[in-house]
Amino acid sequence: MQMTTHDLKQMDLDYTLHTYARNYTHFVRGKGARLFDNEGKDYIDFGAGIAVCSVGHGNERLANAICQQAKELIHTSNLYLIEPQAKLAKELIKQSGYDMRVFFANSGAEANEGAIKIARKFGEVNGETKRYQVITLDSSFHGRTISTLKATAQDKMHHYFGPFPDGFVYAKDILDIPNKISPVTCAVLLELVQGEGGITPFDKAEIQKLAKFLKEKNILLMIDEVQTGIYRSGELFASNYYEITPDVITTAKGLAGGVPIGAVMTSLKDIFSPGDHGSTFGGNFLSTRAALEVLEILKEEKQSGRLEKTISYFTQKLQNLQKSYPEIFIQEVGLGLMRGLRLKDTESFNLFLQKTCENRVLVLKSGKNTARFLPTLTISKEEIDEGFERINHSLKDF
Ligand SMILES: *Cc1c(COP(=O)(O)O)cnc(C)c1O
Question: Pfam families of this UniProt entry (predicted)?
């Protein structure tokens, strides 16, 4: 018997740590871009579990791949060969076109920890003085572990948890990065579209210029693609879209469609020796088999032209909405299926969030006042239409 929402909420409050400002909607299943609550009511999901459910909810192909792998073998440890892990690494390299090798972890933060370790070792073994500083950007987000929290250049997240590891320096924006370089700088870590910082895509020419400049300085360019990666931008990586060749790429969220996984890829193919880095769960049979299926599905979406059509249809819908309600939405921003609508302040954003949820369409927040849209990459025209109809309906009460 399914629990009542009331009992479940109480159990959640009694037994789990209160780290999330939860919305107490009680979902029990999903199909495509729809979620169903315990009363059978359907919601249009424009958040996809924060860019995680890349191939939609209840995807048959993904479910079958996971079930089959679970019956065969879930985990052996990285002490032995793991066929889907090697195949997934090869597929990521093939689809990205980057000449790199891959290490698998279990989350975005963990992938970024790997990137920071690559940067530190690179700084230790290259050049006369030991270099250890990593430059990151204001309004960035890189994770919740102690060092990725410090890499996250948002002071409000640094209360209580110090002392933090040394070696992170913050730049205001892309153009400010050269000012922050010192003799001990080994790397720059940044998102090409800041996911938590208000859906802010950086300028392509500025990024390309920065990439060239860092190469000349022998400083690593590390791109955090935990949110932008896995076809969210329309290309496998936003780095592909920006036409740059980073030294390090991290990714996670959409990679295995909801099964926990993270990956760090680097062109420094021999940076690590056995013992330098590792993970118990990272790259196991279950998560990498799931990710292989996700990449197969998304490659088909891309090659058939469906992904491009979905992106332009969704974007058109958002732009129309912005034009119809310019007094509510100041600006439409974003890239691919990672998009945002800026509202004039936090108050109107909160009202928007409440009204859309009442009308059963799920939207996320980014920064102080941006409504963030990260739909599943396989969302149908009908689901998009339904979602926007519901949003339009919620605006009647504004
Ligand atoms: C979500 C996110 C992370 C952290 O990923 P976790 O899996 O929650 O550890 C890091 N960087 C970016 C850009 C993210 O969006």
Answer: Aminotran_3
